[in-house]
Amino acid sequence: RMEKVINCFCKRPDAVSRLVCFPWAGGGSIYYARWGQLFNSSVEVYSVKLPGRETRVHEPFAEDIQQIVDEVISMLLPELKEKPFVFFGHSFGALTCFATAEHLKKKHGLEPVHLFVSGASAPHSKARQASLKRSELSDEEFLKWMTAVGGTPSEILKNTEAMKLFLPVLRADMRVVEKYSYPAPESNVLTCPVTCFDGKEDIPHDLEAWKDLTSGEFTIQMLPGAHFYLKDPSNETIIIDNITKHLETAEMDYLN
Fold first, then answer.
1. Which of 8, 41, 187, 201 is most buried per CB count within 10 Å?
2. Would you call 58 a catalytic residue per the annotation?
3. Do 220 and 198 contact (CB within 8 A), yes or no?
4. Active-site hit among 47, 91, 118, 125
């Protein structure tokens, strides 16, 4: 049943902790599921699989962020109660992983031992409200924007059939993002540490605003590259090392 929503390449039932990864807009679960092979045996990697793609291609897309949150939590709650976990999300995934963490904390008194967000302004930031409604762009404008953002192989961008399959998925995710509004919090909603990653050549994001959401430690790490900077193998290594370091600290605290 869990396989419907979670892709786990390397099952490690004896792992001390778990990393749960949330995909970017239009993304599948394979990229992060592959991370399972890059972490040591103490970490089990779960990659979230959203409706409307991969093995869920015949299901309707999520209508809003709450639908994604509810599904992930209903599927993972027993696992999340079992051992320490961290969340990682890039771009659209940064918002879905925060929304999931916030809901878990509010409704179940559970939170990640660390929240890693990448390539996105904080959910309540004014920078988000000022951004264009991408989901309403024409196909041609949409393709121009995707080319400018980078990260999508040019052979896919030039392949009309591939784009016919890919564009509806991306548009659906953009609609979810555009519909998601989060008021500026009056107090911290999380207590866990938050780390923000971003590409130095990406459009500027309001990373500082993420600090408003937690009473825990807050760090920003800028890496070379544009929006999909994390696909660069050297950046990927830095991110994985960083997550590993924080997980090891959390594991020590947990085991003590």
1. 8
2. no
3. yes
4. 91
